Amino acid sequence: MPQDSKQTRRRPKTHLLQGYEGEKLALLHLKGLGYRIICRNYRCPLGEIDIIAYHGGVLVFVEVKSRRSQAFGSPKHAITPAKQHKLSQVAWHYLQKHDLTEAKARFDVVTVSGSKGAPLFEVIENAFESTY
């Protein structure tokens, strides 16, 4: 099917922009807490992990969730068992690809809340166990 010669640029959806901004803020917050960032937005055929870092000698897979308000509940409740399983699979892929299957690792969740003023952060270390 032919396309028009004038293609319109599509703007990213608001929730995607919010997610991107939330990840940037979380990244800065984690650096301030002593996390050493290794990778951002690691993608593989199984999915994506927002941030991979070292903290206290442990490899940390970080999922970031942000919300402007509590209207849809706390952002930490968005990490369902299905999401945990998906993150576990992606983490295992990363560990195998980088020959780190014996490394000590954990899953952290960072929530970013608020839309006005300074954002509120919650870092939940060892938020869930791997399910791969």
What is the third-level CATH name, the topology?
Trna Endonuclease, Chain: A, domain 1
Helix content: 25-40%
Specify Rg, calculated over alpha carbons.
Answer: 17 Å
Question: Under the CATH scheme, which architecture would be assigned?
Answer: 3-Layer(aba) Sandwich
What gap, in angstroms, lies between the N and C termini?
Answer: 43 Å
Structural category is: alpha+beta
The strand order across the widest sheet is: 1-2-3-4-5
* Beta-strand fraction estimate: 25-35%
Question: How many beta-strand runs?
Answer: 5
Order of SSEs, N→C?
A: HEEEHEE
Low-pLDDT windows of residues: 1-6
Q: Give the rounded overall mean pLDDT.
A: 83
Biggest β-sheet strands, sense, barrel: 5 strands, mixed
Q: What form results from the Cα inertia axes?
A: globular
User: Number of helical runs?
Assistant: 2
Number of domains: 1
CATH hierarchy, class: Alpha Beta
How would you describe this protein?
The chain has 132 residues and is α+β, with helices and mostly antiparallel strands. The chain has a single domain (14-128), classed as 3-Layer(aba) Sandwich (Trna Endonuclease, Chain: A, domain 1), CATH 3.40.1350. The protein is built from 2 helices and 5 strands. It has helices spanning 14-32, 81-97, and strands at 36-44, 47-55, 58-67, 105-113, 120-128. It has a 5-stranded mixed beta sheet with strand order 1-2-3-4-5. Helix 2 (81-97) links the parallel strand 3 (58-67) and strand 4 (105-113). The radius of gyration is 17 Å and the shape is globular. The N and C termini lie far apart (43 Å).
